[in-house]
Specification:
8-stranded antiparallel β-barrel, alpha+beta, Porin, 212 residues, 3 helices, 22% helix
Length: 212
């Protein structure tokens, strides 16, 4: 047998072995079933409702700084002119998930407001300061509720803010490092001013958060 025939036989054997290995690799791959395709589609849809953890970055990664301003339209009898002002909110990355799409994070708030109160036909200048610690709940990065316990005015008080978050539009769609929240903001104090009774006020609030 000539050398050319030996070469042809060797090449044929190598080609046959290549086909054999290729068939084995194909047979080892699991076929994509219709059920797997449905599961993949459901996973993509559930991603819209799932809270996605941010990738760790710098020292301030996960923190956000927000300013809330509100226009009051409801208040207790003690208050005659609803306080006007704003609150600074520092949100931390420390928290935990409470279920699918539900997230709780710790936060701090500091605020200053100015208004007028009335007691026994006497007008009183009202300048309640707000300080508190608490947290916020976010559902699917859309529904937002926040509460702080601390001081409002000269007594123990509560601050609450709840509404909708535009994070999906501001961050995901527009790629901006800021978020806008719109909702109702309210304050309750056991002693709005030293020596006077408890009171409350609330209104429509708008907040802008900057994420580090």
């Amino acid at each position: 047998m000539s050398k050319s025939n030996y070469l042809k036989i060797i090449l044929s054997m190598l080609f046959g072995l290549g086909l054999l290995f290729a068939q084995e690799e194909v047979s080892e791959e699991e076929p994509v079933t219709e059920e797997a395709q449905v599961d993949e589609t459901q996973a993509e849809e559930e991603e819209l409702l799932e809270y996605v953890e941010d990738t760790p970055g710098g020292a301030l990664s996960g923190f956000s700084l927000g300013f809330t301003g509100s226009v009051g339209f409801v208040n207790g009898e003690f208050i005659t002119d609803t306080p006007v002002g704003g609150s600074l909110v520092i949100s931390t990355p420390y928290g935990f998930k409470l279920g699918e799409g539900l997230r709780f994070n710790l936060s701090l708030t500091f605020g200053s407001y100015s208004g007028t109160a009335s007691e026994a036909d006497n007008d009183l200048d009202l300048g309640p300061a707000v300080m508190g610690i608490g947290g916020n709940l976010t559902i699917a990065k859309f529904i937002f509720a926040e509460g702080h316990v601390g001081t409002v005015g000269d007594g123990t008080g509560l601050r609450g803010f709840a509404g909708v978050s535009l994070e999906r539009i501001m961050k995901r769609s527009l790629g901006l490092p800021v978020n806008v929240l719109v909702g109702g903001e309210g304050f309750i104090s056991t002693e709005m001013k030293t020596g006077y009774n408890d009171s409350y006020w609330g209104g429509l609030g708008v907040r802008i958060d900057y994420s580090f």
